[in-house]
Sequence to fold (529 residues):
Amino acid sequence: MKTKSVRACSTPNRREALGVGALGLGAVLGGCATASGQGTAEAQVAQPPTAAGATTQAAAPRAPRGDGRLLTPTISAYIANIRTASVNPEFLELGKRHILDTLAAAVSCKDLEPAMLGRKYALAKSADAKNGATMLATKERAGLVDAAFGSAMIVHGSEINDFIPSAFVQPGPAVVGVAFALAENRGGSGHDVLRACVAGYELCGRLPKALGVRTLYDSGLANHGIGPCFGAAATAASMLDLSPEKVALVMSYAAQQASGSWQWLLDNDHVEKTFVFAGVGARNGIEAALMVEAGYTGVTDCFDNPGGYMNHKAFSLGADHDPFYLIEDLDTRSEFHHTAYKRYPVGGPTQPVVQALLELLPKTSPETVESIVMEMPGRWEAFRNAEMPALNLRYLASIILIDGRLDLVSAQDRVRFNTDTRVHELKKKDGRRPRARSRNPGRAGARRARPRQADRRPHRPPRALRAVCARFPLAPDDARGCDGQGNGTDVARPRPPPHHRSHRRHDEHRAFGQRLGNRPDDCDLKSSQ
Fold:
């Protein structure tokens, strides 16, 4: 099917209120300096490789990069010292915004099924624990590890949290859930929480890219579980104020527990997926740090030792294995610039379509629509027939036309999805037309969705809506926002200069995403990154 892109443009919502909300959060988190401007990242999600895609374009392993520094001591010192280190004020400001975004997701999702199951499980295990913490957005207390697990499950309940498309991870649930649990349990300050989350986001985004995004898939390991485990471990190590030597051990115990399978793609109920994307990383990451605090010893150089985790042949033989990425420009470049918010309470792949439909609302109504034509690349039927309401484009298009808006409750309403006769009637107006695949599916660019009308005269309403889904994230300089009056405003930070290595590496991850397969992902590019 022919590939097209949509320019991101939306009316203000709770996610875009972060510029105001972060100021209030700053009072809690230590009053750090406010960065000028507001950053965002590519807001569309790549999808996992098909069986054929995973075996094509085989290449020899890349030549090792580096500047002579050892990985384990460098990353361990970074995590251990971040409480008192000089951190770019911009990174701290972005940290506040993403913490606020995560808390908003927790409040919105606490009563959804994955969140309720996470809460129920945590309470069943340790509701009477004296050494515990409160789960986010609730008054329920559980043991420390179980509280962190439950909080992560709550945040990811409907997958409206932030995500890193280039790493296939969603850092907020595990990182922020662990930070707040330990802050309450150990009396940590807002300053400690903010700095620990900055470290957690870095590990969550960098580790999968260092191992190799494609390499992880070829190994059968889900980035979505690997990254949050290390991110949560780094956050917990910082909150516990562990020394660099002990942080190195935390990384080893995180490596022993980092896990996750791509079979989450088969989960229609969003429960196993929430466990992989959020719960398991939070639980295993915080346990790694608590075990080392309790005196556990082990391997102290898991990222440098030829027999260690980073250099195992399962990763080292991969074409995109790049260990040096873990510490490259650690003090001057942040994974926050690759981390995106979700504008709407739906999965990542459906965001552009929802945007297009909302923009077209003033020009149409359910009574005047003859057909709804939606074009997507790849396995488009996965989104046409998705069992999850928030991923089913026919359902989303129908309720947007009926209600004149989209809210969290309707987007997640499985009862309405199954029983609303008016929705079912509109879904029958699906005028899908498969199109030939573009010769250049990775082309960056943007094209607005536009109504297709039988009669173009101004007084005639459109008889069809065309929602064109982006193939892959737009470059930041192509992203535009909307000020609510239909005037485009730049909401993206400039990319690093073309010669900058991080620019090239990020483009390599994007190029990989352009070759990915056809199943719905998280922001992750997911369903979630």
